Amino acid sequence: MGTINVTIWNEFKHERSQSPAGDLIRRHYPEGLHRTLAQNLAADDLVIRAVSLDEPEQGLPEEILQSTDVLVWWGHCAHAEVNDELVDRIQKRVLAGMGLVVLHSGHLSKIFRRLMGTVCRLRWREVGEKERLWVVSPSHPIAQGIPETFVIPHHEMYGEPFDIPQDGKIVFMSWYEGGNVFRSGVAFERDRGKIFYFSPGHETFPIYHDPVIIKIIGNAIRWAAPQEVVLDRITPQPQALEKILSENPLACLDTSSLHKANTEEKKA
Ligand code: ZN
To answer: 233: pLDDT confidence band, cut at 50, 70 and 90?
Structure first.
């Protein structure tokens, strides 16, 4: 069994805030959400790094990104601080095959919105209500070993309508005590990359200490891991493999100037 290089990225702001909420969050995540996730996800087949926004190159210099098979993303209040240039680099690598697991408030991160192409808004309420999750795609790899239904005793409500594209495979659905429902686990593919959005993980509750939640995130990492990440694989003008017998009706035209313009456009 090969190993998977996992990088857990966290904006790491709430855990350092000097406030009653910060004190509460530090009780659950004394070293930061990313480090708790790294500890709880530890397994023989995962090589895990934990990085954060205030590190050099926002935690993802090229050598780290290029050696990452699956990127896990947690952000909330600092989405706007993430450089667009970094978002470009992450997008490129996801399209080439790197897996991406976006957690909780990461639904509004620049990288998730870029890959979805929609605004990714949802409805929310923070009163610590009960959330019940249901597995709705029991054969999906991310649902393996997960109970058909389970409860998070206290969570922030995330509710529909959730403005994501309709091509995602819904793996988990949530019901909240206050009556709302939500697509809480949705799997997407974009070019070669697999992307999983999973909503549990509000920072003031100890959700990343729940073994079922950790098992789901671990399953998502293993599902999203690529066989290989293939950059620049496209052959834009392939030679015909078979002899083309059709007569080209445009053969009499000089189309070389048009081809040149097309080629330059594709390079841009
Ligand atoms: Zn939250």
So the answer is: low
Task: Provide the whole-model pTM.
Answer: 0.92
Q: 219 lies in a domain?
A: yes
In a domain, 264, yes or no: no
Sign of CA dihedral 95, 56, 35, 104: negative
Give the tokens for residue 253: 């035209």
Kindly provide the residue ranges of all beta strands, DSSP E only, lying in the chain, ordered along the sequence.
Answer: 4-10, 46-52, 70-74, 99-103, 123-135, 149-159, 169-176, 181-190, 193-198
Report how many domains make up the chain.
Answer: 1
**Helices 33-41 and 211-224, axial angle in degrees (round to 10):** 80
User: In the structure, what pLDDT confidence band is assigned to residue 250 with cuts at 50, 70 and 90?
Assistant: confident
Mean pLDDT of 239-246: 94
Q: Ligand 1 centre from 208 Cα, in Å?
A: 13
Is residue 256 in some structural domain?
no
**pLDDT tens profile 22-73:** 999 999 999 999 999 999 999 999 999 999 999 999 999 999 999 999 999 9
Rounded average pLDDT over 222-240: 85
The chain-wide mean pLDDT, for the chain, equals 94
Taking the centre of ligand 1 as the mean of its atom positions, its distance from the CA of residue 96, in whole angstroms, is 30
How far is the centre of ligand 1, averaged over its atoms, from the C-alpha of 241 (Å)?
Answer: 54
Read off the DSSP letter of residue 57: G
Q: Looking at residue 189, which CATH number applies to its domain?
A: 3.40.50.880
Is residue 61 situated within a structural domain? Answer: yes
Residue type, position 236, single letter = P
Ligand 1 center to 153 CA (angstroms) = 15
> In angstroms, what is the span from residue 93 Cα to ligand 1's centroid?
27
149 CA to middle of ligand 1, Å? 22
Which domain covers residue 65, as residue numbers? 4-224
Q: What is the distance in A from the centroid of ligand 1 to the CA of 148?
A: 24
